[in-house]
Amino acid sequence: MIRYVPILRWKRGERVALKYLTPQARARTTPLVLLGSEQFKVKAATKAHAAVPAPQVFVHDVLSDWGKGTFYLDASSLPVQGAQPHPIAAVAAAARAAGASLIPVMNLGAKPGYMTAVTAIKNSDDRGVCLRIDMEELFSISHWLPHWPFPIGETDLIVDFGENVASAAAHGSTLDAAFKSLNMAGSWRSITVAGTSMPPNFTGYTAGQHLIARTEAQLWSRLSSLPLPYQLNFGDFASVTTGVTPANIAWGYPINVKYTLPTHFLIFRGVRTTGPSAVDMDIQLRGHAKGITGYSPRHAIAGAWSDQTIDHIAVGKADPKGLEHWVQLSVNRHIELMHAVLP
């Protein structure tokens, strides 16, 4: 069974999406969390409770919304205070105490303090590590692989093309050869290809309904059909952008919705809620729900929380709520669909 790796920013909308996954989708999914400062904060003290340190807050959220299943954590962007150990060390300690199954993620350019912390986590937890590389690093693997500090057999390799999937695919037979030779120096514990074809914030699209080809899914399909000496897993960005999104969406922002299909994204580009030609958010979101349910090649998934909720919104049985709710629905639908369509 192909393993699915959704790459997430750990915003609340994504967390709730995980919480409502079916057991079947959850079983074949290993989230990769890119933990930034916005999602790593102390819970302030109240009159009844003391402050809760950021590592404990994060692990509590993991247990609440994902459970004790395995997840990858890339915390390399978190700042380090003075000579203190990297914060991922404290996160791993909290996860260990709570029974959460964390696998640390490394990048080739990781700072020494982060590498030290990841090494200690690997030695303590014995779950190995994950290495996330980009296209340039894939093609230069012969130069850096001899210096990789961990056993290949204990390393999950993720080749993440980010927003450069089309450029990667254009390499054709050269890319094919690179994937065919990935195990030449030894067998990685697992290999995943990831990327996205979603433009940030639907840039370049006018108001209305659009289809965007899922180039990353097409690339995985092509690569996985090669005579590879290993199983090629699939990963992508389950939300709408690879970058760090704003903490809050300004009032009046266009009301956009993404709905994932097997080979395309179905996009509903909305209009602003203030100013000339504005339309109320609730009206737009209910209209988007109706557009989804009325789309004949929808591939609705029985038992999926997202599809059931969208059905109810479309006919007025549920409140469309706000954009964060639609992030929950979009990500939940995306992951459920990947479970449904991957072999």
State the main characteristics:
single chain, 343 residues, alpha/beta, 8-stranded parallel β-barrel, 3-stranded antiparallel beta sheet, 11 strands, 36% helix, 17% strand
Explain this structure:
This protein has one domain (4-30, 128-341). β2 (32-34), α3 (54-65) and β3 (70-74) form a beta-alpha-beta unit. It is α/β, with parallel strands linked by helices and 343 residues long. The protein has an eight-stranded parallel β-barrel with strand order 1-2-3-4-5-6-7-9, surrounded by four helices. The chain is globular, with a radius of gyration of 21 Å. It has helices at residues 12-19, 23-27, 54-65, 87-98, 112-125, 135-139, 141-144, 165-169, 173-180, 215-224, 281-293, 305-314, 323-341, and strands at 4-8, 32-34, 70-74, 101-106, 129-133, 155-160, 190-195, 208-213, 232-237, 257-260, 264-269.
Please render the helix and strand layout as text.
Elements: E1 4-8, H1 12-19, H2 23-27, E2 32-34, H3 54-65, E3 70-74, H4 87-98, E4 101-106, H5 112-125, E5 129-133, H6 135-139, H7 141-144, E6 155-160, H8 165-169, H9 173-180, E7 190-195, E8 208-213, H10 215-224, E9 232-237, E10 257-260, E11 264-269, H11 281-293, H12 305-314, H13 323-341
Parallel strand pairs: 1-2, 1-9, 2-3, 3-4, 4-5, 5-6, 6-7, 7-9
Antiparallel strand pairs: 8-11, 10-11
Helix pairs in contact: 1-3, 1-13, 3-4, 4-5, 11-12, 12-13
